[in-house]
Prior knowledge:
- The radius of gyration is 21 Å and the shape is elongated.
- The protein has 6 helices and 19 strands.
- It has 2 domains: 2-115 and 245-313, 3-Layer(bba) Sandwich (FAD/NAD(P)-binding domain); 118-241, 3-Layer(bba) Sandwich (FAD/NAD(P)-binding domain), CATH 3.50.50.60.
- Strands 1, 2, 5, 6, 7, 8 and 19 form a 7-stranded mixed beta sheet that branches. It has a 5-stranded parallel beta sheet with strand order 10-17-11-12-13, covered by helices on one side. The protein has a 3-stranded antiparallel beta sheet with strand order 14-15-16, with no helix packed on it.
- The mean pLDDT is 95.
- It is α/β, with parallel strands linked by helices.
- Strand 12 (170-174), helix 5 (184-191) and strand 13 (196-199) form a beta-alpha-beta unit.
- Helix 1 (14-25) runs parallel beside helix 2 (60-73) and helix 1 runs parallel beside helix 6 (292-310).
- The relative contact order is 0.18.
- The protein is 22% helix and 31% strand.
- Residues 119, 151-157, 159, 176-177, 181, 243-245, 287-288 line the site of NADPH dihydro-nicotinamide-adenine-dinucleotide phosphate (NDP).
Amino acid sequence: xxxxxxxxxxxxxxxxxxxxxxxxxxxxxxxxxxxxxxxxxxxxxxxxxxxxxxxxxxxxxxxxxxxxxxxxxxxxxxxxxxxxxxxxxxxxxxxxxxxxxxxxxxxxxxxxxxxxxxxxxxxxxxxxxxxxxxxxxxxxxxxxxxxxxxxxxxxxxxxxxxxxxxxxxxxxxxxxxxxxxxxxxxxxxxxxxxxxxxxxxxxxxxxxxxxxxxxxxxxxxxxxxxxxxxxxxxxxxxxxxxxxxxxxxxxxxxxxxxxxxxxxxxxxxxxxxxxxxxxxxxxxxxxxxxxxxxxxxxxxxxxxxxxxxxxxxx
Length: 314
Ligand code: NDP
């Protein structure tokens, strides 16, 4: 089956749904393919307090449901399924849905997001949302005046540690080597922050906590010191894992320009990729902000860029 589409949106996080809202209102009749995890990263979080419009915060999955329903109400055609192949070598672009249907799109918005890397240790997923987080900006507020740990030695980990140091009583920065990967400027800021203690050459061996239905929380982490060959159990209330992200771009390799980490390259200040008519929005092209609201904002930009492109304004 072959279907012609004006604006195809691949991916369903805040970027994809917002792109769908704007594209639908601009009469682009958008078709949005939700992908493997409809709603994206926010569906695996709990309370979100920093998404504008919710005075008392709201559960991540509910926010995504609101966005989805809003996009549908505007007329977006939202479908479950996976785009399994794309060909951006000529326009209109051919995208294959679930290995069978051929979608022929005049414009494509890629909003497939990124996923945070995890340590892959036993209790990590059990305490996800209950003391284990991958976003200090999102969850740091819940640890005001408490003791937390940040795992990682890159710019993101140090940025998270500095952010948390302003809120928390104490922050452990746990790094697996004796040298940080982050920029020197960032390192100096961390070294100059009295309530950040760096645990060098350490890996998290275990996350411990209470796992009762109404009282689920992290209480400590067991660190293995590779040099001393010893373990230490350190009380913490929260653990922020910041060991990098993986953009969901395997499908687009060789089709659009990616950076060395696999993120889609966009022209500064726009969502345009190197292929005219193909746009990228949200975490799939953002190594810096990675917030639901910034993803939503770039989703809006992508729909406006697609509209201008289709109307040949530029
Ligand atoms: P990075 O890949 O730069 O750093 C990841 C860190 O996590 C490294 O220190 C790495 O250790 C550590 N790590 C990886 N896997 C594990 C593991 N399994 N267990 C323990 N530690 C692990 O990722 P970031 O997210 O920090 O940054 C991504 C990009 O975004 C970078 O280019 C960065 O410069 C940029 N960025 C820039 C910012 C800014 O300019 N303000 C802010 C945030 C990000 P090791 O060093 O030993 O490999």
